[in-house]
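Deviations from the work plan: none for this task. Representative record:
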Amino acid sequence: MQSPKKNETAATVTNPPVGAGAVAALWLGNEPFRLLAAAITDYAIFFLDCAGQVVTWSAGAEQLKGYRADEIIGRHFACFYPPEDVAQGKPDRELQIAAATGRYQDEGWRVRKDGSRFWANVVITALRDAQDQLLGYGKVTRDMTAQQNAAEKFRNLLEAAPDAMVIIDPAGRMVLVNSQTERLFGYGRAELLGQPVELLMPARFHDRHPAQRAEYAANPRVRPMGANLELFARRKDGSEFPVEISLSPLPTADGLLVTSAIRDVTERKRFEQTLQQAKTEAEAANKELEAFCSSVSHDLRAPLRTTDGFSQILLENHSHQLDPTARDYLQRIRNASQQMGRLIDDLLRLARITRCELARADTDLSELARVIVTGLQATQPGRVVDWRISDGLLARVDPQLVRIALENLLGNAWKFTAKRAQAVIEFGVQQQPTERVFYVRDNGAGFDMAYVGKLFGAFQRLHSPREFEGTGIGLATVQRIIHRHGGRIWAEGVVAAGATFYFTL
Amino acid sequence: MNENEPKILLVEDSPTDAELTMLALQKSNMANPIDLVRDGAEALEYLFGTGAYAWRAERCLPQLVLLDLRLPKLDGIEVLQQIRANPRTRRLPVVIMTSSNEETDMARCYDHGANSYIRKPVDFEHFIAAVKQLSLYWLVLNETPPGEQAA
């Protein structure tokens, strides 16, 4: 809004030209009114004659509309209206209404001298003499652009909200809704305004709701409606859908209004349900796997123990009845049983890695490797291996799982360098731009890169058991552990020269 | 305590497993008489001196129970629970001897007051070594807890 230039204009008032008619005489004959009109600069106050021509002018009028008195007096007041209103005959219609009813009030766009528009509140009053003869019109115009802007901003804000916004009055009637509300509920705006908000709810909630509204009015604050309750809304077609509603109080001169932001959570509920179902299924599958492992662990091993046990008793207690071939056969039976026992254990470990929770902790991999190396050396104290373990390899990993992975990798290196006179086994890290790549390198038997794809499959072995013993599950286990950490594992090898296993964590 | 009283109660449903355990105990020179029961219900009757074992009501408890987990009627965990719930047997040393090394099995056994958990190895020589160590420990080294059996 323009700021009034009080000092210059406060006392000026332009009088009508001599002979301007009865309405001018009215203006001139009322000194206190003239002074008042001159002092008010927030409003344009002026008189029109019966034909709608401007007869008097004031400082407020000049300030608001931009015309000086000598520019406007005598002109028809239609020049204050936008051309489209003029084309529709709005100015004259307003005068007719004022003449017929005594008063006409309007809000709408008006035009200044420079062509700019402002939102005006206009009151036109018919002025009559004692004989009820129409003398002219008094016109009071106020610039409401700022208020209009604020209201428009509020409406825009309401429209831009992602949720359906419904504002209700103290009686629970909807006084404002946005277009999301129309879309969500299938009602037109006109069908909603003035209606009880219960219209938007399933019938079974209607009885309780007025009491709940009263409760909110007694303690109004921004909060979700019915925390932890399942809320449902009802469309015009009667269908229901789950919603989340947040409430905020809006105190006004007309009492406490309440704004509700209503969000359709159908999709989210469906997603949550799917997720929950998947979780339940996964848990059931895990339980089943657990039961399966438990029974494998027990039932598959028991016969092996019998086989090995009685073979051993035969070898020890009945040795004199057996020739060397028979004893050799028995020893083979024992070896096979024990091999199968290891196989079962490795498979169970592999299964366990899949289903256990990952428990990450800051872990010193160097230290872990040294403990494993000590254990390996203890199995064959005579073997000399040049261990090169880098210091300070720290990572946030599941220590138990990574221990199993390192046991396998270092154990493999140990195993496949058994035939080297000068075995070298290395555990270190390469710092790449975005990640650290750990590696275990040996100068052992190596492998043919043609088979690198088979390396990490369960039961895949690239060496005959006669060369190197093993179950073929070790690297599958390592891979699963690395994957569970979100890492990658790959290998490079040269036959008879060695292998390197790289992994990230 | 009578020297000829059985010192170990073996609870094992598989006859071959029972025989292997007996053989292992013989080989480890633990010449202790062993009593064998075939299921969980029988184990409890034996220990509580009820049912077919009413005659044992006045007898001493064994020094050690070797308890398998997979048992007909009552499984090992239930037997363990009842042993711990009964004032007569609540301090009785119970060693779980089983083929399973499932973490859940292990956790449940310790939760219910098992004194030890041994996984029977496939390799019979390892098994003999294990039985030797555990009988030496529980029958010779370990002090039998005070309780009913001390009477």
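Residues 161-264 of chain A form a domain with the Beta-Lactamase fold (CATH 3.30.450.20).
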